[in-house]
Amino acid sequence: MAESNTDTKSSNQMWGGRFASGPDAIMEEINASIGFDKKLFAQDIRGSIAHATMLAHQGIISAEDKDKIVHGLNTILSEIESGNFEFSRRLEDIHMNIEARLATLIGPAAGRLHTARSRNDQVALDFRLWVKEELEKTEKMLTGLIAAFLDRAEEHAESVMPGFTHLQTAQPVTFGHHCMAYVEMFGRDRSRVRHAIEHLDESPIGAAALAGTGYPIDRHMTAKALGFREPTRNSIDTVSDRDFAIEFLAIAAITGMHLSRLAEEIVIWSTPQFGFVRLSDAFSTGSSIMPQKKNPDAAELVRAKTGRINGSLIALLTIMKGLPLAYSKDMQEDKEQVFDAAESLELAIAAMTGMVRDMTVNTARMKAAAGSGFSTATDLADWLVREAGLPFRDAHHVTGRAVALAESKGCDLAELPLVDLQAIHSAITDTVYDVLTVEASVASRKSFGGTAPSEVRKQIAFWRARN
Ligand code: ARG
């Protein structure tokens, strides 16, 4: 049966169409990462320039070879940036594509670049640099989103809206206060980003394959040249660690979850039934069949991007979970997850910032809704505690009876005649009506962090000083 081996290479029916050319083609396709890791070209070149410069400084390669290498790498950088570089899948990944081109450009000196390093520390470096830049970009974008919310909060520090629990009207709050809740959420996301930058700020280059190297390299020099705080301490950990990528994805997932909650609120608020906000035309679409519709597509897509980002986080956690130390090729699957999540996150933050800035807030609708659903019932109970000396539990009970009465009469608490209220509890006087309006309710909640406009303004001032 030996002869059948010869044609498996050209046409094995079991492998089917695209693999008709046999095992070499399958291996090339499964092994190559150039299709996605070409995104790392700038980081790869920066890393190689720093490495070559250090090698020359340490006398490991000559200054002439270093100059040729640096010149060649800069040429490659402009070739790639101008779209004049031919990526080859046969050369597997970005590292070998660049090194092969360097050999064509400068000859044998190119072979000295890979002294005292391996693709294992090289890819760890390139990817770390990429993730670091992405985190810095995310930090800026979150700052922009927070700024948009601060502006809206300031504008609406006094605008009353219903506050919800269980999506049922609970107590009146201000729209400014609601906006500031998102500032807190995105502020936490931003501080997670800052911590992640601190965590990853160690240079992997020089860990080599996994054990370090016998050449007299200076890892502090390369760390400094590449803008890292210091070199990593353990060469085995260095080439097997992808925590920085997982942290990025975890932060993206949490931020995505926040964005998705906001998206959901915008979807609800922009329904004709709620009518709290109107999205700008820029961030909504019409229907091809129903002329009256204005759909919150951007918000819906932000909500959906969260699913994608969560998928990437789980994918990378799963890829890493059973890997023995140090490097395994499994780790090549880290990049697409991070690239995809980064793209989704950037787009989601940008779309949300635009929506928050552009949406029209219907304060009249919000205020009307704030007054319905007996939202000031707690204020009545608090009045009974404060003015009539009732224990809160009793006041809660009395208020419940007043709500039931108003419900049966089809009116609001503030519309119940005084005699009716006094029939429920004799201590009630007409000053109770002062607390039954939504404005009075909101203004009274002056506890630290509360919804009173004066408190909301303090929250805004706190964040303005930090944004
Ligand atoms: N393309 C590889 C990756 O992304 C680079 C590292 C390859 N190292 C190796 N020992 N095969 O992980």
Automatic annotation (TrEMBL):
The Argininosuccinate lyase C-terminal domain is annotated at: 374-443
Task: Name a GO CC annotation attached to this entry.
Answer: cytosol
The Fumarate lyase N-terminal domain covers which part of the protein?
Answer: 17-311
> Do the record's keywords include Ligase?
no
The pathway that the record names for this protein is: Amino-acid biosynthesis; L-arginine biosynthesis; L-arginine from L-ornithine and carbamoyl phosphate: step 3/3
Signal peptide positions are none
Give the UniProt keywords, A-Z: Amino-acid biosynthesis, Arginine biosynthesis, Cytoplasm, Lyase
Q: Which Gene Ontology terms cover its molecular function?
A: argininosuccinate lyase activity
Checking CDD domains in the record gives: Argininosuccinate_lyase
Major subcellular location class: cytoplasm
Q: Where in the cell is it found?
A: Cytoplasm
Q: Which reaction does it catalyse?
A: 2-(N(omega)-L-arginino)succinate = fumarate + L-arginine
What family is this protein classified in? Answer: Belongs to the lyase 1 family. Argininosuccinate lyase subfamily.
Return the HAMAP family for the record.
Arg_succ_lyase
Q: What is this protein called?
A: Argininosuccinate lyase
